[in-house]
Write a structure and sequence with these properties.
With about 325 residues, the chain is an alpha+beta fold. The protein has 9 helices and 11 strands. It is about 50% helix and about 15% strand. The strands form 4 sheets. It has a 4-stranded antiparallel β-sheet, sandwiched between helices. Strands 4-3-11 form a 3-stranded antiparallel β-sheet. Strands 1-2 form a two-stranded antiparallel sheet.
Amino acid sequence: MGASMQTRLLTIAGLLLGAALQAAAEPAAATTEPVWATVDDMTITQAQFAGVLARTVRARYYHGAPPENLGEQIRQEVGEQLIQRVLLVREAKRLGLAADESKITAQLTRYRERYEKSPQWPTQGEKALATLGGLLRDDDVLGQLEARTRDAAAPGADEAAKFYLEHPEKFTEPRQDHVALILKAVDPSAPTEAWDKARAEAAEILDALRKGGDFAVLAREKSADKTAASGGDMGYLHAGMLSTAAEEAIAKLQPGGISDAVTVLEGVAIFKLVDRREPRQREFADVKERALALLRRERGERAWSELRARLKAAAKIDVVAAEPGDAALAGKTR
C-alpha cells in the first residue's frame, strides 16, 4: 500500500512534490486521455501507468533499464498495483471510511510551506495541492481499510494455544553448545611454514590436554584469541556462529570432550564442549504473546489478500494491452 500504489508524479520548482503518484480514477466518459485500463466505470490512463512504471524502474535500476527478462514482470507488478488501488479506494469509500482531515491539512500545510516560494507556485501550486490532497485522502482511507481488515482476523488466546501446539518449530530454542577455545593464530595469507608451525604447536597443546592438562589454564597461556583471559570461554553458541569446520568438529563431541586441531580462517583451533543444551520447546506461558503476534500477522495477511482477490474477481477489468503481458491483469467479467 501507500506511495507505491499512487500514480501521478507532481512537480513544483523541478522537485517532487511529496513523491505522490496518482492512482485516482474517473468515470470512463469523463476523460479524453488515452486509457490503459478500465475497472468497471473507472479508468487508469496510459499516462498514469507510464508514470508509475518509469518511477518504479528508476527506483530499482537507478543507472539504467531493467534486464530484458524482468521488464514484463515489472509491467505486471505496476499494473496490479494500480488496479488494486482503484478497487481498494472504492471499497473503503463504500464502507464509509473518511480521511482524517486534520492530518491531511497538516500535511498539505507542510508542502505549501516548502514550495510556495518557487516561481511555479502562483500558476501550479493550488492545483497541485488539490490533487495531492485527493491522493493523501485516498492513502488515509486505504490505511484504515487495511487496518480494519487485518484487525478483524485477530485471534484469541485459545487460538494462539492451538497455533503453538501445531507449530512447535516456531517456539523451539535451537541446540546451544557451551564452547571453549584455544587458538594458534595465523594470518590467512601467511606462508605454509607459519601454518605448519601453528599445527605443530596445537599438537603439543593437544598432547598436554590428553595427559590431563587444564584447558582453561592452557588457554590463558597459549591462546591468541580474545577469550584467552577467560580461559577460552566462548559461552553458549548456536548454529551459524562458527565456521562449518568448527561446528562439525564440535558436533562430534560430548560434554567435556576436546576436538582435534581444526584449521579455521583465523588459524588453528582446539575446541572443548563444556555443556550442551538440546533443542527444547518453550512453555506456552513464556511465548503466548509471540504466538498471538505470529498468528495475528498470518491471519491478517490472509484476510488482506483475500479481500484484494475478492474485489478483483468481482470487477470487470479491461486492459488495453500496449504490451502482450498486460492483458493477463484483466479480471473476470461480472
